[in-house]
Amino acid sequence: MRDPRQLVAARWRGVHRRDAVAVGGPEPIGRQGETDLLEELAHRAGPGRLARVAEPPPGRLRIAVVGGASGERDVAGQEPSPGAALDYEHLGPVGGRPDGDHGRGLADRSAHAPDSRRPVTVQAPIGSCLVSAEIAERIRGAIAERGPISFAEFMDLALYAQGGFYDDPPVGRVGDFVTSPHIHWWFAYAVAKALGELQEALGDPSPARVVEVGAGDGTLARTLLDIVRDAGPVDYVAVERSAGAIERLRELQVRTATALADVAPIRDATVFANELLDNLPFRRVRRRDGGLVEVRIDALGHAFVEREVPADEDLRADAGGAGGRDETIVPTGALAFIDELARVCERSYVLLIDYAEADVASSDRVHGYRDHRVVADVLSSPGTTDITAGVNLDAVSARASASGLDVLGRVSQRDALVALGFRGWAERQRERQASLLADGRDVEATRCWESRSRATLLLDPGGLGRLSWLLLATPGLPRPQWLELAAEEAV
Questions:
Q1: What's the whole-model pTM score?
Q2: Residues 420-476 pLDDT 10s
């Protein structure tokens, strides 16, 4: 069997291989291709700890979980788990998840009835108190200068100011949450395949120009570059505001920038962002009898509180048809990002991977993450907690069209990964597992099963599989085959 890197290289060289999306073969990229999270799983779980479940018939996917939920953003909340992360992990088939539970933390090792899951308020670690006080003082200063500030400004200071939550990458096993690249290397492989086809549509420019926005700790960049290292020269640009993240990214010998404007114009390139939009500052509005009001943040004693003020004209326009008395998230940061993409991109594709708002009751609820658990009160201890909410991708798509970009399509991560060859890879891994068992190589067979089961988390319809892949392009570029196949899969 050919190594996946060779197959991706074939695509990046412009060789059209339909069978390249059905990858098989030995455990690829060596152990270094998986993150510490998966490495820990492989060394802690022996055959005796695996759930005894029947294999599905060939061609059908079984979604297996590691202790219930190992995904990304968990909207509804999680309960504390016994012991440290992954200490009690086991593999088994996933059941249904309560509505609104996207799954981002690593806790939740057991089954819960839907009404038993509540947001958990987590105390800030002692070591973060000084940082939190510094951020809090900056927020108080802004309020003292201008009065109650928008939630977007509060969020920007809490997350991105010096000493803020993202000042040092908070992702991974020892961080506050994990994302798809931390779960399994196959996510990076799928992104590489998708971008490879886009590069082909651009005429296979050399070097291939790739721009990752919100590159974080570099896990995705590192794995993707390892996969395509034999595909010819790649000009990889990592755009990241975090000083700590920039320091890590420089270890990868990629170009770094703190803003899209620093790498403009972006021509003959593929731009992508994984879970960026839901962390861009947003504003909040509510419908009241007197009209639309904005939720702003004020200081009261030592605490931060919400204040409702009449929404300004620009915010009312961005809020569109916000109705009812429930709160609506207005993704002002995401809309501004789309406007900037439209200004700086020339003959390029843009792939945005993120959680779409599912419904008003769950996705519009502002929440945070700390230590792999949901934090309900995001106004306390700013700077120590992630802040997020589901993204209105319909509004993002509408803004893209209004800005002159083509909206080529939107599919779920599950359907995208299936279109990019996950079923074929999983089946070949199952055949390899059977061969290893037949040869008496039980430990290797167990690890093969673990890796394959771990990879299925990326497709879990109750977790990571719910992520949306939204593809935009400058005018005149074709729709890629993988997007067509993913759309067919969704029917």
A1: 0.77
A2: 999 999 999 999 999 999 999 999 999 999 999 999 999 999 889 999 999 999 999
Question: Apex CA 253: angle with CA 250 and CA 258, to 5°?
Answer: 45
Q: Which tokens is 423 given?
A: 């079923």
Tokens representing 376 are 């309900």
Return d(Cα 215, Cα 225) in angstroms, integer. Answer: 13
- Count Cα neighbours of 410 within 13 Å in the Cβ-side half-sphere: 19
Residue 50: φ, ψ to 5°: -80, 140
Please state the domain extents for the chain.
4-118+178-277+413-466
Q: What is the residue type of 35?
A: T
Give whole-number Cα distances, 218 to 98, 171, 202, 342, in Å.
Answer: 32, 10, 26, 25
- For residue 209, give the nearest of 191, 227, 196, 190 by alpha carbon: 196
DSSP for residue 171: B
Q: Which two tokens stand for residue 239?
A: 């755009």
**How far from chain centre, in Å, is Cα 179?**
5
- Per residue in 70-110, pLDDT (tens digit) is 344 433 333 323 232 332 233 333 333 333 444 444 333 22
For the chain, the residue count is 491
Please state, in angstroms and rounded to a whole number, the distance separating the CA atoms of residues 491 and 486: 9
Which three-class secondary structure state does DSSP give residue 13? coil
Kindly report the CA angle at 333 between 330 and 337, in degrees rounded to 5? Answer: 130
